[in-house]
Amino acid sequence: MLRAFSNRNYRLWAAADLVSVTGTWMQVLGLNWVVMERTGSATSVGLSVALSTLPAMVCGPWAGALADRMSPRRIIVVAESLHVLIALLLALTVWAGLPLPVLFGLTASAGLVGTVEGPALGRFASQVVPRSDLGNALAWNSVVNSVGRVLGMSLAGVLAALLGEALLFCLNAVSFTAVIVTVLVMRPAQFHPLAVSTPEFAGVRAGLRYLRTQHVLLVLFALGFVLSSLGRNYQVTMAAMAEGPLGAGPAGYGTLSAVFAVGTVLGGLAAARISAYTMPVLLATAAATSVLQAVSGLVPGMVGFALMLLPIAAGAVVIDTVKSTRLQLDAAESMRGRVLAVQGTVAGGAGALGAPALGWLSEHLGPQEALLLAGAVTLLVTGVAALVLRELARRSATAPQAPAAEPALTPA
């Protein structure tokens, strides 16, 4: 269960990740609540979320091609430095009460930097553990991220009430600095290098040609898009439930966010105990989570809704862990950055479309009805994905075996 922690570089990376995620979620909570407080609109919160993810839809493939050709450490150091600057500018914007368009512009800038950094982070995380420990490392990454989310949300509520939201962005800038220092002090000799693309297999077009032949990966992308857009944008629906049917206000939103984070910790621990990250595990968890989401809005009271969030959040982490493991292990090493970039693009599209859509549904149909409709759609799509994957497996079993056309590789 603790295999990944036998690697020194991973222990350092996990510690830095905990600090960074804590700061990030402090900023997320502060940003979402500043927008909700100024506008009183769940749609505006959805727009803020969309602006942070929209760059991934446009720039993701190029970020992946860059990660497959350059040192991920170099990309991470530059990107984290830019995150420090943007966080400080956000703090100044909130403190000075500058107009929302300024806030939205900085949010989009942070999303753009995160898009460029994302595939490099994925490749770098694969280099701090051997291939056999990758699934376990991804599961523990989820635990670390969840613990950081709990800490971030909990601290954010207290600090924002005492000292104001601007402080949250300053602390996030400090957390990015911790990542830069950690990356620089790691031991390169203990990395597990991945192959990089030769020039003839580099670039966005080569990556897209490769993905067209990987039908299972394409199904995972499609399923992930639906689950993320309608089943994972709880930032919007929790805010709408807290402001509307539950009548809990900002304190209730913070409580629900913390409960959701606790559920992700439980999900990460469950994922770390999984011995094989297989498609049946992914599909069964997606189906169960969809059913729970559909009925969550119908459970009366703040306590009832919070209790429903626990298994939903846990299931979301198991889904992400299995899906990410399969995407990385089933893809060629020289294409992993571009596969991760497409995954980021899919997630960006899900946020850009799903968050405003859920906000609109919450305002016009009601938050409870929005949860019911979204859960029903994700359950239907999960069933369709199961049928398609079964058909692909049947065709693969009956097709004559031919040597796989693997992209040319160059040692990192």
Write the layout of secondary structure elements.
Blueprint: H1 8-39, H2 42-67, H3 72-96, H4 100-127, H5 134-163, H6 166-185, E1 196-197, H7 204-212, H8 215-231, H9 234-243, H10 249-272, H11 279-296, H12 301-329, H13 336-364, H14 367-398, E2 409-410
Helix pairs in contact: 1-2, 1-5, 1-6, 2-4, 2-9, 2-13, 3-4, 3-6, 4-13, 5-10, 5-12, 8-13, 8-14, 9-10, 9-13, 10-12, 11-12, 11-14, 13-14
Rg: 21 Å
Question: With helices defined by DSSP (H or I, 4 residues minimum), what is the helix count?
Answer: 14
Q: Would you tell me the overall average pLDDT?
A: 81
Which structural class do you get from the secondary structure elements? Answer: mainly alpha
| Molecular shape | globular
Q: Any guess at the CATH architecture?
A: Up-down Bundle
Corresponding CATH superfamily: MFS general substrate transporter like domains
Approximate strand percentage: under 5%
> What's the domain count?
1
Total strand count, please? 2
Order of helices and strands: HHHHHHEHHHHHHHHE
Strand order of the largest sheet: 1-2
The residue fraction in helices comes out at over 70%
Give the class-level CATH name.
Answer: Mainly Alpha
Q: Which spans have pLDDT < 50 for at least 5 consecutive residues?
A: 402-412
Remind me, CATH topology?
Answer: Growth Hormone, Chain: A
Give the biggest sheet.
2 strands, antiparallel
Distance between the ends: 29 Å
Molecular structure report:
The protein has a single domain (3-398), classed as MFS general substrate transporter like domains (Growth Hormone, Chain: A), CATH 1.20.1250. Helix content is 80%, strand content 1%. It contains 14 helices and 2 strands, in the order ααααααβααααααααβ. Strands 1-2 form a two-stranded antiparallel ribbon. Helix 3 (72-96) runs antiparallel to helix 4, helix 9 (234-243) packs antiparallel against helix 10 (249-272) and helix 11 (279-296) runs antiparallel to helix 12. The chain is globular, with a radius of gyration of 21 Å. The chain starts with 7 loop residues before the first helix and ends with a strand. It is found in: Cell membrane. This is MFS transporter. It is a multi-pass membrane protein. InterPro entries: MFS_dom (IPR020846), MFS_trans_sf (IPR036259), TM_effector (IPR010290).
